[in-house]
Every structure is written in structure tokens, then in C-alpha cells.
């Protein structure tokens, strides 16, 4: 195998890594604006999509990345909500 042919696959995989990192940043920006309910709905759509037998490997990878980012976003939103609940002073509620 010629020397230059040995470097082409490495260059292509490196290019894909750069593209994936750019896509991940774009996905993160888009997802950060979603509410919890919208994020859950998007996760449900991804789940339905990956159950399709005709899905391509590229789509599986994209759905995996989006799903992971959406799940992290949901966890962050829940953690923020939990912090706010824990900071509520029962005296302010004045339930009596």
C-alpha cells in the first residue's frame, strides 16, 4: 500500500471528528433553549426514529449524540429545579 494511501483514512476520520465536534456544539446550543417537556418530547422522537429498521448508521450516530445531550439537559433542568425547591424557606409559604 502506498504511503499516501495509509494517511487518507486517518485524515478522513480526523475530519469526521472535527465535524462531529461542530455538530455537537450546534446541538447543544439548540437543545439549551428547550424546556424540560420539549426535551422529553425530542427524546421520544429519537427513540421512535432509532426503532425504524431503515435508519442509516449516520442517523444512529446523530441520534445517539442528540439523545445524550438531551438527557444531560433534562438532568441539569431537574437538578436546577431541585436546588430551587431546597432553597424555598417554609416560612415564606405561610400555609397555616
From TrEMBL:
Gene Ontology terms: biological process: DNA catabolic process
N-terminal signal peptide: none
Molecular function terms, GO-annotated: exodeoxyribonuclease VII activity
Stored Gene3D superfamilies: Exonuclease VII, small subunit (1.10.287.1040)
GO cellular component, one term: exodeoxyribonuclease VII complex
Pfam families xrefs: Exonuc_VII_S
Coiled coil segments of this chain: none
EC number(s) recorded for this UniProt protein: 3.1.11.6
Key words, A-Z: Cytoplasm, Exonuclease, Hydrolase, Nuclease
Family indicated by similarity: Belongs to the XseB family.
Descriptive protein name: Exodeoxyribonuclease VII small subunit
Species of the source: Prochlorococcus marinus str. P0902-H212
Amino acid at each position: 500500500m502506498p504511503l499516501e494511501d495509509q494517511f487518507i483514512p486517518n485524515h478522513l476520520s480526523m475530519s469526521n471528528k472535527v465535524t462531529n465536534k461542530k455538530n455537537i456544539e450546534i446541538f447543544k446550543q439548540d437543545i439549551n433553549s428547550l424546556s424540560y417537556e420539549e426535551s422529553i418530547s425530542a427524546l421520544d422522537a429519537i427513540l421512535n426514529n432509532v426503532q425504524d429498521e431503515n435508519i442509516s448508521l449516520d442517523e444512529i450516530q446523530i441520534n445517539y449524540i442528540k439523545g445524550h445531550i438531551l438527557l444531560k439537559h433534562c438532568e441539569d433542568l431537574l437538578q436546577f429545579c431541585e436546588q430551587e425547591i431546597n432553597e424555598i424557606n417554609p416560612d415564606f409559604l405561610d400555609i397555616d
